[in-house]
Amino acid sequence: MGRTRVTLADVAAASGVSVTTASLVLTGRARELRISEDAERRVRSTAQELGYRRGVLVSGPRPGPSRTIGFVLDTVTSSGLAGEVVKGAVEAAYRHGFMLFAGETGGDPGLERSLVEAMRDRRADGIVLATTHTRAIAVPERLHHGPAVLLNATAGARSAIPSVVSDEEQGGRSAARLLVDAGHRQGVHLIGAGPGSYDVPPHSIAAVQRLIGLREVFAVAGVEVVSAHRCPRWTPEDGYDATRQLLRHHLPKALVCFDDRLAFGAYQALGEAGLSVPGDVSVLGFDDHPVASWMRPRLTTIAMPHHELGVQAVEVLVEMLGRRGRGTRPPLIRRVPMPVREGGSVARPQP
Fold first, then answer.
1. What is the C-alpha to C-alpha distance for residues 59 and 221, in angstroms, rounded to an integer?
2. Segment Disordered: which positions (predicted)?
3. What's 11's domain CATH number?
4. Environment class of residue 297 by beta-carbon count within 10 Å: exposed (0-12), middle (13-18) or buried (19+)?
5. Between residues 135 and 253, the one the model is more confident about
């Protein structure tokens, strides 16, 4: 009986690293891609001890499915929001009998290309490419060489790669209905974007779509937006400054903040002006950022469905793998509903 062939997965498992990390080390890109010296030494010594030879996986005819999915993310998976996305993806992959290997790029396009290439070279059945902020992206060339899904992103140029994104228009409609149902018809102001459909931060797909949803419901209900304050960045400082500027000219009844961090800044400006939330001013946010749960009263917000986004990205990829060779494709965009997280920041307007 012949000697069992040592695979890259064997080296990775024995070294205590991911297959992607092992691949990058053994292709000489460890230093370039900031892999620790300790991990590099472990991988190289383990490969030598096991007798691993590069190239055996990519020579000869292609074997059957590897039952692996590559997941490339532009931020660290240990952060709360990104972690929920990856958790959802891992759970969905496991249910379908796949292993998921995640790599982080830190927003570095070169590292993104390298990770996609490494996962293709290691014969991942498909790849999910995820971004933290919803935006149009330039798709790495190797992503077109097999089944792939964009998560929280759309292709900047014409592409057949499907996308999984939050249903931001539905989120905007939900936000508007919360205020309308609470009785708000006057004194509504926007913090972060608007009033025009494209008066938004650069490349912000989410802001445009949230505006569309808001305006749709407000138009039917007869709500007139008194003012809108575009913020180039959605930070607490921007929310604070925009609200202070607003208070110089108006006494608002409700603020729609396009991000919870903007709402955090708005709370501070309202408090300094002697105005209470929601007694004097109702405040509404988007994203369900961790800061929302620390605000008092707890912020009512339209949540980004991070866990479900991860789940759906894998579901779309598995559908593609099942349809491979049949000439059919899933819809180019799958929109995931944004749930309402009720807090205590919206109330009926006072006379």
1. 65
2. 329-351
3. 1.10.260.40
4. middle
5. 253
